[in-house]
Amino acid sequence: MRRPAWNGSPPLGGEEARARIIEAAMRCVDRYGPDKARLSDVAVELGVIRQTVYRYFPSTEELFAAVGDAARENYVNRLVAHVAGVTAPGEVLVEILAYTIERVPRDPYLGLFLTAGQSDAFSRRAMSAAAFESCQEVLARVDVDWGELGYEGRELTDLVEFLLRILLSFLDDPLPRRDGAGLRRFLRRWVLPAVVSTVDAGGYDR
């Protein structure tokens, strides 16, 4: 016997429908993995036909982009907690970069485009307004007074862009792969000199 649509509990409106579709997509990612979860799996999970999902998300790319967006807030909170108590601005920048470089490819939601082989889509998302806002939020919440260091307005926006471009270069074409202490040494040696003219690098080892 065929299950009733929406498993017998239709959403009250479009916003609830989108939220439930995203939640179902996350369950499918957990069950099948980010490279095997399909829009048809999401439809089955919800007890609807694929056309119903397409009504709210015109493409698979758009649906899984929404899943990534839903995971951003959680990731920002985790990243801020990870660098809590670190006050040397250079070390904060290194750890923001290193932690994200290490985590995104392994995160079943944030790394959806990479694991699905859709690097062009990932590149667009990585440099989107939402990505800028997330990075700005992280910098605003860490234990560093960027304004006191000369980073306000346009300067802070440029710093955010710089960080995102560095992240994208690692995530979109990560060769050679680096992690752990080696990744952090590399970032301290080559990335921090680009910003040390106005930010004290916190006594990092060259």
Automatic annotation (TrEMBL):
Residues 15-75 form the HTH tetR-type domain. Residues 38-57 bind DNA. InterPro entries: Homeodomain-like_sf, HTH-type_TetR-like_transc_reg, HTH_TetR. One of its GO terms (molecular function) is DNA-binding transcription factor activity. Keywords: DNA-binding, Transcription, Transcription regulation. It holds the Pfam family TetR_N. The keyword Nucleotide-binding does not apply. The keyword Cytoplasm does not apply. This is TetR/AcrR family transcriptional regulator. It comes from Amycolatopsis acidicola.
